Structure formats: C-alpha cells, structure tokens
Amino acid sequence: MTTKLGYSLFQRVTTARFLRKMCLLALTVPFLVSSVMSLVIASEKENEDENESYAIGLWGDLPYSDLQATTGVPNLIADMNAQNLAFTVHDGDLKAGNSTPGSVTPTTCNNALYTQALGYFNALKSPAAFTPGDNDWTDCDRSSNGGFNSRERLDYERQVFFSTKFSLGQRRLVQEVQTAPLCLSANDTAVPCVENRRWTVGKVTYATLNIQGSCNNLCDTAPDPQEYAARNAADIAWMRETFQAAKARNSVAVMFISQGNPGWDLTDGTRAPLRDPKTLAETDSQPDGFQSFLLALRDEVIAFRKPVVYVDGDSHYQRIDKPFLDAQGRRIENFTRLETFGDNAANGTNDVNWVKVIVNPCSREVFSYQQQIVPGNRVAVPSP
Length: 384
Known about the structure:
The chain is α/β, with parallel strands linked by helices. Helices cover about 35% and strands about 15% of the residues. Strand 9 (about 255), helix 7 and strand 10 (about 310) form a beta-alpha-beta unit. It is globular, with a radius of gyration of 24 Å.
C-alpha cells in the first residue's frame, strides 16, 4: 500500500510538472517562432519564385558631415524604405577620411561611430548588408581619426556588425560566412574574415569582399603588409568560392560588393590607381594592393561567361561602365563595374543618393540600373 501510495503521489507530481512545462512551452513557442520568422522571412519571401524580378539598393561613402548624418542619410533611408527592396548594401566608409573638428556627430573612429551606423542599418525595413571601408578601419590610425590601431577597429567592426550569420535591417537574410581563420587580428592571431558574406536571391549570387582604398592597407599612415597578405588571400579564396557556389546553384549572375576602387586602366588617375589594362599592374609607383586579386577575378569572370557586376565606392563618382579588359586588350563583355554615389561635403547633401538595381533573372543582362536622387537631398535644383 505504501508503495502504491508513493507511486500514485509521484505520478500526480510528475503529471503536474509535465502540464506546467507544456503550458510554458505553449506560451513560449509562438514568441520563438515569431522571432525566427522575423529573421528568415525575407529569404523565404524573395525565393518564392526564383524567376521573379526584384530590386535592391546600393549606397556607401556616407555620412561625411553632421548635415549628412542628421539630414542626408535619414532622407536616403526614408527613400529606400518607401520602395519595395529585396535588400540593401552599404559598400563601406561610415565617415570621412579625417575627423571634423567641432562635429556634433561621430567623425573619429571611436565606438560611437559604429553605434550610429548600426542605427542607420537597422532603420532600414529591408535586409541590410555592409562591407567595411578604409575610413572606418584602415585609416583609423591617422591622428585626426583618434590614432587607433587599425586591426583593432576591424576586430570591433566584426563584433558590432558581423557577430551572427544574419544581415542587419528590420528584416534579415541568412548569409554564408567566411569562417576559415584566414585574417589577422590586432593580437596577430588568425581569425575568420566574418565580414566576407555570400547569399543568393532569385538565381543571382551576391558576395561582399573586404577590399580597401588606401592601397588596400599597403600605404597611408601605417602600412600593414602582413594584414594585407592574409586578407588578400582570403578575398581571392572567397571570390573563387563564390563563383563555384554560383555554378553549383546554376545562378544566372554574380554581384560582388567591396569598398576600394582598384583602378582598371589608364584613364582615371584622379579617382583611382592607374593600371595597365592588359597586365593589370599598377603604373603610378604606388604600392599595388590589387593586382593579384584582379588577375584572379579576370580569370573567373571569363570562365563564368554569365553577367558579373563589381560594386565599389571609394571614388565618390557614380558611374556604370565596362573598364575590365582581357590580356589581349579586349573588353570583357560580361563584366560591369558599378560605383555608388559618395560624399560631396562641400555641397552638403548634394550627392547623398543611391542606386536602385532591377534584377530580372529571366533577362539576358539580368541587371538594369536606376539612379535614385533623393528628393529631400537635392541642392542645386530643388525638388518640384
């Protein structure tokens, strides 16, 4: 009898505990599901029909002044939010090359700069991707920027922007991450280059690459050839893997997004390094932080045959062109360079604009382009 009573009591207690757990689970699961859905709904929705057209937004080299930080960029974000975008990408440079004395918004490389940027990205309704720029890590060792250790600032960016496999933004995309420990930290240890990301939407594969202005960290205040060599090898590996992934997925096109303008030929020495278009060797006596990457990229673009777009910032001159030549000097027809708008601080919000890319996986060229002149940022000719 005692045994039966003990068992009966145990059974009632166990059953009560089980019911409490089930009730708790019933209350918790909807919140968990809601949380997960907020992260992955973007990728699911955009892939309902992989042949459907969609639009993306590209911007970068902003903000560079208090006016741009408080007015220009908020106007730009509102303009993006008013349109149905699958995702947006900022191609680096969260600030000007040097700080602004007396500024009321962050213009050095202190932590507040990255907090401000995170606020911008998470104000975007669409998934928001980002790749670092030289002004927000490579050039942080300038005394005007606070004299930081450049590698330490990149380590910090990795913590702030790249600590998960998800994009930023109010809706989020799941991204593939370069997890191999190929980059160098401030402690001189091998760490993953987690800022290098990849994702596919509607039969098009996208990837970010940490490629910088300022000779890709081989010139300026404190050149760092060891950091460059490690990261450059990682970038080449990620670029090659992206083409492999695109072929495996039968992607119809590839788009890369980076900060630095490597220079492609001998035509634009005011905005980019001068480069022999056949050998891709730099000709202006500056350290060449790009040739090995460009040679590898050229081989992959030619072998891929389908459309490839390379998005950069750095030069602050919006353009869409075809500057890439093969070793015989022939234009590589399936390659397009897209440079985003960038700061023109002397004219306030004059160039605080973005580029809308229409992606049609069923079209021959896949990508078409629209300059988006933000109405509230017009200066020379006010909006009607």
